[in-house]
Amino acid sequence: MELIGSNGLKVARTVVISLFLLWAGQGFAGTTPAEPIVTFDSPGEGFEATEKKPTMRFSSNIPVGAANLLVLLDGVDITGVLEFPPGGFEYRPDQSLPNGQHQIHVTVYRDDGTEAEQEFAFSTLYRGFFDQVSSNTQVSAVYEQALKKPVGVPRRNLATNLGTTNLVTKGKWEVGFNTNLRYLERSAPILAPEKKGFDLVDYRLSGRYAGENLGLLAEMGDLQLQETQNTVMGLARRGARAELNYRSFSLSSFMVQSEQVFGFDGGLGLDFNENDNIKGVAGGIKLFSDALTLRTIYVTGGEKGSSFGLYTEGGDRKGDVLAFVLQNQLLDGKLTIGAEYDLSDFDADTSDEFSSETDRAWSLKAGGYAGNVNYQALYEYVGPDYEVVGNRGLQRDREGFTVNGGIQSSLYALTLSGSRYEDNVKEDPLFPQTSATMGMADFSFNRFPAFPMGLSVQRTIMDSSMVPEFGMPIKTYTDMIGARINHPSGPWNFSLNANYSRQDDRTDVNYDTKTQTYSFVPMYYSEHFSFTPSLSFNRSSDDTSGTDTDTYTATLDLRGDLFSGKCLYEFAGTFNRMEMSRDAMKMDSLNSNFRVAYVPGTNYFGFLNPSIGLRGLYNKTNDRLSHQSNEDFALLLVISTSLGISL
User: Fold this and answer.
1) Which of 134, 286, 312, 339 yields a CA-CA distance of 20 to 30 A from 641?
2) Beta strands 357-370 and 335-347: pairing type?
3) What are phi and psi of 26, to 5 degrees?
4) What's the pLDDT tens digit per position in 429-461?
């Protein structure tokens, strides 16, 4: 019994050991390398941070860097500003994060080409009288000392810029203040409107209330005003505006200086007088679940001749305009129709004996989409005496239509457009009436992703009628055709374009011309180096005289950095050669510039980013017929720095 018991124990022990080894072997055989895991260490998953700019720290079980990592904070890529301490990475926000939830998306790219994604979330809540107080100030300074200079280049130049963005929120209220200041000092005179010393570039002070049914906005400073093409379009002036929105109703008003100002000379923009301001008011209502919008716009004011960036012949101008605007969305937004009717009363020169002129403008438009098809049509009329104060880009004395449409798929895209416009809409017998008719088609083919290509054709017809005696009639047919092909390949992209146009003059003058252009642009781009040369050839032919003008152009744009960003370099240059047949002209020109800078480091003392380097300019023209040439060379020592302060 003892012997049997001993053998039984041995057998049992052998079975147990065998089973354990079998289980362990299977366990080890089934073990796979651990997935790359990123751990959110601080503030931590689901944590509520009470700091305005909490530092976010992550650890990883594999080496990570900018080359194999993508990090998004609330949808914004922050990979380029990460720091990489041993065993992970971290992010220090430059600006305060708003209160509330924040999402972090991390993607790690493995060496075998696969990737792993992880999501983290945390929130911020810092307490105080205000919900949020943030300030971001950026200061930059550049000093240039000429080591070798041609005539016209100052020996010394100092330019300093300060920009600040500030925001305070409390509940549904928000107050913001933005401004840009500049300091200039130069060893040579400075052309107006700039001047030496401190000056104001722009500023804006705003207050906003955003409630569930009520919205308020008030702004003063340098404003950009936009209403409609025939009233206020891209009006950039200094002044004030206010806006009220209540449910489906809206009301807005503005008052700005008509003079375009620069710097402190324009003041705050609130010093108005009757003949030197532009003011307006607009009201609107939305009906039928906001599908129908009705608006009325009234603008009035005066302009006192020319000002910075604006030139006016004659004396002061004044006028007003009244507009009625309708817009209706149908078929769940697939069709949008609009209409506008405008009445103007304008005096182009208040100093002459003529009174103001009244005129009108109107337009009808429709557009939308159906599946992969889009379309738009516009018919418009602008009278010869229709003008609006402050709207210098308004095209008047014209009537016509524009239609365009397109269809797009994954393999191709086709765009068609056509238009016809006439001037002298009231058929004044003292002037001819000229019509312009245009038709265009553009086709893009993407069947081969490595070689996307396209073809475009266009015909334009200019024709005049009602030509007065001794007038010059116009009747030209201009045809254009263009072809293009690209080849993207990794960091490279190659582009080849060819265009040909021919103008057929069907008047007695018979001034026919042809133009052909060919261009080749290879482009290389990587994180630390980009290289973009281009070659082009253009020939313009005058069939009447049999003269050809050839232009050869070569350009180069080169930039990059070395030694982990401590050395920055860039070069840009353009070479042109122009030649006319019969040796009428042979001219070469070269324009180039370069910059090399050394950046010893970033964020010195937490905010300073200095650099020192050289900047050079070289220009040369060479008349190969007269054997005369001119060249300029400038070499400047450049010391610059920038700093950012965020609270």
Assistant:
1) 134
2) antiparallel
3) -65, -40
4) 999 999 999 999 999 999 999 999 999 999 999
